[in-house]
Amino acid sequence: DQQVKQNSPSLSVQEGRISILNCDYTNSMFDYFLWYKKYPAEGPTFLISISSIKDKNEDGRFTVFLNKSAKHLSLHIVPSQPGDSAVYFCAAAGYGQNFVFGPGTRLSVLP
Amino acid sequence: DGGITQSPKYLFRKEGQNVTLSCEQNLNHDAMYWYRQDPGQGLRLIYYSQIVNDFQKGDIAEGYSVSREKKESFPLTVTSAQKNPTAFYLCASSGTGDNQPQHFGDGTRLSIL
Asked: What is the number of H-type helices and E-type strands within chain A?
């Protein structure tokens, strides 16, 4: 049973527009969430995090939104750039627990 | 530069052979992790270690072994008991305490000859 789901395997967006990547979780004990970006043949790179005491965290072009009641988080990238084309993973953990990773969404930003 | 170094980048294993994947970090992190990535799946935890000389099984530890003799190093051995070893292996480290993101190496791709 997947505790962290990313239901869109892929997403294509035009350069300059907004990219919205979604993540859903089932475990109500999760209270810390991360987004990672991964290029082929490289390790994931940490992008942004959010804890359950917040509903929004922003870092430059990247904003993560958390809706605890819906057990849903999303990553917004504005404006999208061709270099953002990668696989994006969300991950979640509860206190004292290891992270659980979603299967990833492949983002393609078209010039 | 601080970071995590995994070697080799590509590794080939013959049937019945054990192979060891190297992971070294100079971030002074206490915790280290090994994950396996298969196509279309998220990262699955193989083993983790919160402190030197101690490690715990993750979700898919069967057919794997680890050691943590030094803080900087956390090698993973893929044994002949692992029947489906072809995958991309990722090592990560983090500080201890709550809300610590993990930092990853660039991975090792293991294939069977």
From this structure: 0, 11
pLDDT at site B43? 92
Q: Report the DSSP pairing between strands B44-51 and B108-112.
A: unpaired
Cβ pair A4, A73 in contact under 8 A: no
Which residues of A fall within a CB distance of 8 Å from B33? 98
Look at B6 and A89 and tell me if their CB atoms are within 8 Å: no
Are residues A102 and B42 in contact, defined by beta-carbon separation less than 8 angstroms? yes
A window 39-68, beta carbon within 8 A of B: 41-46, 49, 51
The token pair that represents B98 in the structure block: 């709550």
List CB contacts of A69: < 8 A, sequence separation 6 or more.
none
Q: Residue B47's closest chain A neighbor by CA?
A: A98
Tokens of A16: 């300059």
Burial A39-78 (b: 16+ CB within 10 A, else e): eeeebbebbbbbeeeeeebeeeebbbbbeeeebebbbbbe
Shortest distance between the Cα of B30 and any Cα of chain A, in A, equals 14
Question: Within its chain, how far is the Cα of B4 from the centroid?
Answer: 11
**CB within 8 Å of B12: residues ≥ 6 apart:** B110, B111, B112, B113
pLDDT tens for each residue of B12-59: 988 889 999 999 999 999 999 999 999 878 899 999 999 999 999 999
CB contact under 8 A, A101 and B6: no
